[in-house]
Design brief:
Blueprint: H1 5-21, H2 24-30, H3 34-40, H4 45-48, H5 56-81, H6 85-99, H7 102-108, H8 120-133, E1 138-141, E2 144-149, H9 150-167, H10 174-196, H11 200-215
Antiparallel strand pairs: 1-2
Helix pairs in contact: 1-2, 1-5, 5-6, 5-8, 6-8, 6-10, 8-10, 9-10
Amino acid sequence: MQFTITIAIVIITCLVSIGGFNNYKIIDDLIFYPPAVTRRNQWYRFFSCGLIHADWAHLIFNMLSLYLFGRMVEQQFISIFGVQGKIFYLLMYVMALAVSLLPTFFKNRDNYHYRSLGASGAVSAVIFAGLLIAPYTEVYLFFIPIPIPGFIFAPLYLFISILLERKGGDNVNHSAHIWGALFGLVFVIIVGKIAADFDAVSYCIRAIKYYLQLKGWG
């Protein structure tokens, strides 16, 4: 098995998360706690919270999603950006950890009862970056046991996440999922154009048209 940036992230995140399961001090030191950023300038928490998870289910879901999508996206980045692809991939993941939490921070900067943890925002960025480049990728939505093309899954996922965010009460930071996903799209569009003259939007549209033709839908 080839050692990749994705695998490295998964291994590091699993090791730190599992350590946190048995040592609450690790959780307390790394968790995203807005007042600690506001009052004590602990900006590192925007990134460190992505290394810890609430429980085994949370960790497995995020890391399995990252492993399944990340390897493909990492390879896509290498195809687009060449040898710099791995650097851009890692940069996107790390930046997504922070960017996905910015709305949460501004909303809860003085909320002493708010805490958030997990790599969901960055994982969402990876997934949506991959779906922009390969919109024909078939994925599964939680309660629908049939594969859904990425170009249908993506807006559906965002729509459901927005509804759940507005509803609230489920102890899940859906805002991080939404903004992480959007950041993944924006990153590929902007960096792709600047660093590789890659028009991600046009490429995505052509890929969708080709997929529809193969399926006899267009």
